[in-house]
Amino acid sequence: MIIKMKRIKKIIYISLVSVLICTIGCANMGSVSKNNNSTLSSHFKGLFHLGAAINEETILGKDSKSVSIVKSEFNSITPENSLKWMYIQPKANQFEFKAADRYVQLGLENDMYIVGHALVWHNQLADFMQTINDADEIQGYIANHINTVVSRYKGKIDAWDVVNEAFDEDGSLRKSVFYNNLGEDYIEDVFKLAEKADPQADLIYNDYNFYKPKKRAGILKMVKKFKSKGVKIDGVGVQAHWDLKSPSIDQIEQIILDVHAAGVPVSFTELDISVLPNPWEMVGAEVTQNFSQFEGDPKMSPYPNKLPSKVQKQLAKRYHDIFKLFVKHSDKINRVTFWGVMDKHSWLNDWPINGRTNYPLLFDRNYNPKPAYKSVLEVNTNPKN
Length: 385
Ligand code: G3I
Fold this sequence. Notes:
This protein is of the alpha/beta class and 385 residues long. The protein has a single domain, classed as Alpha-Beta Barrel (TIM Barrel), CATH 3.20.20. 39% of the residues lie in helices and 14% in strands. Strands 1-2-3-4-5-6-8-9 form an eight-stranded parallel barrel, surrounded by five helices. Helix 8 (135-152) packs parallel to helix 10 and helix 13 runs parallel beside helix 14 (371-377). The longest helix has 21 residues, at 5-25. It is globular. The chain starts with a helix and ends in an 8-residue tail after the last helix. 40% of the residues are buried. The site of ligand G3I has 10 residues, from loops. Residues 80-81, 123-124, 164, 239, 270, 285, 287, 347 line the site of ligand G3I.
């Protein structure tokens, strides 16, 4: 795993303190950890960071149960929405940092690997940005946004999703407002701006559907180009919005191997496993896809009250298999982040159909660990096994 040297001392210190505290008071630990001394992050310690995306209720401390899980189970956080452009700079040159400041504070207080998500993304962009039709104008706003936001959290935010979802499924660049105004070199320019604002932060390119060979090839071609030109890029973020069967373990392994061969570590940045029907063979996380005609159709939400134990077991096995693979390749993996803390708050209850009941995470609607949680903790953490 790639751990920054600056954090190693802290980690050793925290480990010693943890051992001491545990020796004194393990009996008082939260319900999640009663059966053994492992938490998710301690179980995979030394292999990769273990994170969760947290919503604004959690960031602002309004959801105390979620805060408690985050503090005990994870050593990395990502803001699910609060650092996106539409919230940070909703109007031109007007910045709103209240939630973002609280988010960073939470991470610092708990010595977490803090992720910034996301600097340049065509979605959840402020309205004023969507209609710009002038290269200098949009370039000016991008530079100002990155300088202002990245500099504010310099030395505090450890990694930035610098550019998010800039590629189409065929491996070409998405025709976003950024591409349309600035052409194909805009991603390189954005990475350079981020580096200038905080040379120490890890700079990540983040996207979904990496298991599709053409899309992966397009992205990794860019990564290799950056490496050969000396443009700083520190990792690829594979979103990992998957389901019970797809992508296969072999396909996930191929992603890891190919990203590694391109010269950067991989982070699984947005892991969740949908258990609901997907009759359209739809994959990934293109948020504009919507199937509102199926809203309220019981066939599309077959488990409104409880996940049947058969599916619960399938989910547990799926997570176990995935983490087994992650351990096998932990030398190539920097971080694994779940996209949410518990099922009730997952975005997958409302995508691609509103109002379904999905079960994609490790904690249930009452904040209790699911069988999948246990199955992840049962993964042997020796990479050679
Ligand atoms: O801001 C409004 C708020 O004012 C209102 O009260 C509330 C009521 O529903 O809606 C709020 O906006 C919602 C926003 O999340 C914040 O909660 C939007 O309707 C909703 O569409 C939006 O969804 C987010 C989605 O990105 C938008 O693209 C999800 O929470 C978030 O999990 C999801 O995250 C993305 C990653 O950033 C990038 N990769 C894909 C991933 C899943 O789509």
